Amino acid sequence: MTGDARIIDGKATAAALRAEIGREVAAIKATRGLTPGLHVVLVGEDPASKVYVASKERLAVEIGMNSVAHRLPAETTEAQLLAKLAELNADDSVDGILVQLPLPKHIDTGRIIDAIDPAKDVDGLHPINAGLLAGGKNGLVPCTPLGSMLLLKQALPSLSGLDAVVIGRSELVGRPVAQLLLQADCTVTIAHSRTRDLAAVVKRADIVIAAVGRPRMVKGDWIKPGATVIDVGINRLPDGKLTGDVDFAEAVKVAGAITPVPGGVGPMTIACLLKNTLTAFHARRG
Ligand SMILES: NC(=O)C1=CN([C@@H]2O[C@H](COP(=O)(O)OP(=O)(O)OC[C@H]3O[C@@H](n4cnc5c(N)ncnc54)[C@H](OP(=O)(O)O)[C@@H]3O)[C@@H](O)[C@H]2O)C=CC1
Ligand SMILES: Nc1nc(=O)c2c([nH]1)NC[C@@H]1CN(c3ccc(C(=O)N[C@@H](CCC(=O)O)C(=O)O)cc3)C=[N+]21
Fold first, then answer.
1. What residues contact 239, with CB distance under 8 A and at least 6 apart?
2. Class of the CATH-defined domain 32-118
């Protein structure tokens, strides 16, 4: 492989996906007088979370959805948060519920996720949705894995038989993206902090999905020439800039195609949240 990799444009792909969803929302309004509704619950004052929630709210409004952010104080108790979720579960106008993570330490995240109606769980984190995905039967699929797969399929029309390495095994990203790759008939390896000789494991891969949370950890000489690299990492450097988990400057010289940070998986995550809200709307309200 000579020359630089093709840069996969997540920003443009996400904008196109949002425009398509916007047209569907408009059609639902015109023909049925209904508006899909997304509700994001934010507990506390985490600055990064505040920015994400504002961005989700703005983009949902832009495509014509009802978008409500429930901002609760940091001292909200688990019981109060469960009561808020019960209220949203019972409200027929609420199609999607997302509880922004991380939650304050005094709240048990698992208990909160379990309390979301799986039919409204647009983050795809409820054990029912995770279980369906593990069984190869999709319910609501987590947004970042879904967005990563859409970008991957843009670069590689056929994934069947390819070697895929996922670095990271979190419930939010690594595990579900590995399930989707398996569904697409890849041979999947899941690497994590105990993996021996990560560089050699990555070197075998036709597809690398990096979801680690360590800035520029994946080096250019780990990448098989021509491989497709999806960088999920969002790391803020001391100078305020964002960088991925892949050393982009090095990897772009070796890979066949690569996603940038920013402008890669991040915008797709939000577009897929809106897509999941529409999917949840149709599944519940026809
Ligand atoms: N683009 C987007 O929309 C989103 C981006 N992100 C970003 O993706 C990244 C991952 O997020 P998330 O999955 O939530 O993170 P977690 O911290 O939950 O998981 C990180 C995973 O990486 C593994 N890991 C850590 N260090 C190493 C190492 N040195 N070598 C190999 N594996 C390692 C961990 O292994 P172990 O299990 O053994 O501890 C763990 O499985 C972060 O940068 C996050 O900001 C997250 C969500 C959305
Ligand atoms: N319940 C829950 N679900 C999530 O999906 C979830 C979460 N909690 N907590 C935090 C992480 C992180 N996350 C991002 C979404 C969009 C961008 C994004 O759009 N990033 C832009 C840049 C934004 C900027 O400049 O700050 C980009 O990569 O181009 C990033 C990160 C969703 N998360």
1. none
2. alpha beta
Q: State the complex-level ipTM.
A: 0.98
Q: Verify whether ligand 2 is closer than 6 Å to residue 98 (CB atom).
A: yes
CATH architecture group of domain 142-266: 3-Layer(aba) Sandwich (3.40)
Residue 253 burial class via C-beta count within 10 angstroms: exposed 0-12, middle 13-18, buried 19 and up: middle
Domain spans in the chain, listed from the N-terminal domain onward? 32-118, 142-266
Contact 231/264 with Cβ under 8 angstroms? yes
- pTM for this model (two decimals): 0.97
Q: Considering only CA atoms, which residue is closest to atom 28 of ligand 1?
A: 193
**117 CA → ligand 2 middle, Å:** 23
32-118 and 142-266 have identical folds: yes
Cα–Cα distance list, 23 to 18, 64, 170, 209, 275 (Å): 9, 9, 34, 31, 12
Closest-CA residue, ligand 1 atom 1, reads 266
pLDDT tens track for 218-229: 999 999 999 999
Taking CA atoms, 175 is separated from 80, 131, 166, in Å, by 30, 11, 8
β-strand pairing of 235-236 with 242-243: antiparallel
